[in-house]
Amino acid sequence: MALLTPLIAFIYHLPVVYRWLLRPYYVFSALLSVAFLLTRKLPPLCHNLPSQREDGNSCDFDWREVEILMFLSAIVMLKNRRSFTVDQHVGNIFMFSKVANVILFFRLDLRMGLLYLTLCIVFLMTCKPPLYMGPEYIKYFNDKTIDEELEKDKRVTWVVEFFANWSAECQSFAAVYADLSLRYNCPGLQFGKVDVGRYAEVAKKYKVSTSPLTKQLPTLIMFQGGKEVMRRPQIDKKGRAVSWTFSDENIIREFNLNELYQKSKKVFKTKDSQETEATGVNSETQHMLEDDTESKKDK
Fold first, then answer.
1. In the Cβ-directed half-sphere of 42, how many Cα atoms lie within 13 Å?
2. Cα torsion angle, 98, 104, 107, 110, sign
3. pLDDT tens, per residue, the chain with 299 residues
4. How far apart, in whole angstroms, are the C-alpha atoms of residue 279 and residue 109?
5. CA angle at residue 82 from 80 to 88, to 5 degrees?
6. H or E stretch including 216?
7. Which of 100, 104, 138, 237 could form a disulfide with 72 if both were Cys (CB 3.0 to 4.6 A apart)?
């Protein structure tokens, strides 16, 4: 039963997985990732390739190529231990596979290495990873609306993600953040996003560096009463982000979302009930005045 349940779940979601994998970005990434494997194994291509094997078989891996591929597998396994979404797992596999392909092609032939490196650069410049387009309860800010929204209602707690579309980490985190917004969004606890890659003034005001070297993207900041009360990741003295994993469990624990969600619901429920009672009292008073007026007219 333990094996049957995930198998059924995989079969159920298979059409969605196919549609996701058939996007141009993933198709070309997969081809680039297996380029050396195809070149070394396909008979029409591998016949004239140089080989360091003792038997001279140019259509099989030599011991150094096997060593590089095993090292690649170990790195991917270590990196994927800290990955929490399918995008992150697949992204790590593609990235390190391309690095290994560059090394293998340059080792095989300088011209092939330069050709493969050129193809990778062209791919990175022309084909961007697909953005998350799923359901979410997130409000998108710009440089003019973020301050206004944060200070509009002091009772509302805001969790705001500072992101950039070019950041692979931000794109991987998009699905996790959207899921949290669906689970915890309420009138007293709301989620927002602002593109600091586009609005540099916002990044400067809230002290979020967009440099890839600082690794501050994405940054989550919690605002209460219009003021910052917490941010992740934290920043060290050198201006670099302290290592922190953007998993839903870590965010829920660090930002105390469960308790905030319950408190926010109670506060706004109390407000709604008070407004309802006040409306009922006003309507009863109005009816009494109307009855008195009618009785005076009758007299």
1. 8
2. negative
3. 444 555 565 555 556 555 656 778 888 999 999 999 999 888 888 888 887 777 778 888 888 888 888 888 888 888 777 666 677 778 888 888 999 999 999 998 999 999 999 999 999 888 877 777 778 999 999 999 999 999 888 889 999 999 998 887 888 888 889 999 999 999 899 999 999 999 999 999 999 999 888 889 999 999 998 899 999 999 888 878 888 888 888 999 999 999 999 988 877 665 555 444 444 434 444 444 344 444 444 44
4. 82
5. 55
6. none
7. 100
**Tokens 């396994």 map to which residue?**
77
For 156, the enclosing helix (H) or strand (E) is none
The structure tokens listed for 172 are 């991987």
Cβ pair 253, 272 in contact under 8 A: no
* Ramachandran class of 272: left when φ > 0, alpha when ψ lies in -120 to 50, beta otherwise: alpha
Residue 75, both tokens: 């790195």
Sign (positive or negative) of CA dihedral 148, 151, 155, 156: positive
The angle that helices 14-21 and 4-12 make with each other, rounded to 10 degrees, is 50
In the block, residue with structure tokens 């600091």: 196
